[in-house]
Amino acid sequence: MLYTTVDRADNKQYRELYTSPAAVRRPKRASRPDGTVITLVQYKAKSTPRATPRRTPNGRFIKTDILGYTVMEKRKRWGTEYPDNIRNGE
Q: For 4-44, what is each residue's pLDDT tens digit?
């Protein structure tokens, strides 16, 4: 299910993040359950002739072409070979 959307002005992208309903139901400060998968879909933002992102009436970027996908999964003990200061959780 769609979890959240993000407008990235720094690279002129509109992003959608998807995950399971179980992960969305968790309180924001709670850790996501083991096995949670988050999929990020990156879209090019529609631009004006001056390369400024166009916006919807409510101020959000307008998505166009898909630029890429990123899929992340949380598992216990994943990443333990890396120092804590460069890890982003499990």
A: 999 999 999 999 999 999 888 887 767 778 889 999 999 99
Q: How many CB atoms are located within 10 Å of the residue 45 CB?
A: 24
Tokens (6 digits) for 73: 């999964």
Place of tokens 């139901």: 25
**The model's pTM:** 0.80
CA–CA dist 43, 20 (Å, integer) = 21
Any idea what DSSP says for residue 25?
H
Sheet holding 37-45, edge to edge: 2-8, 13-18, 37-45, 63-73
pLDDT of residue 85: 85
Q: What gap in Å lies between CA 75 and CA 34, rounded to an integer? A: 5
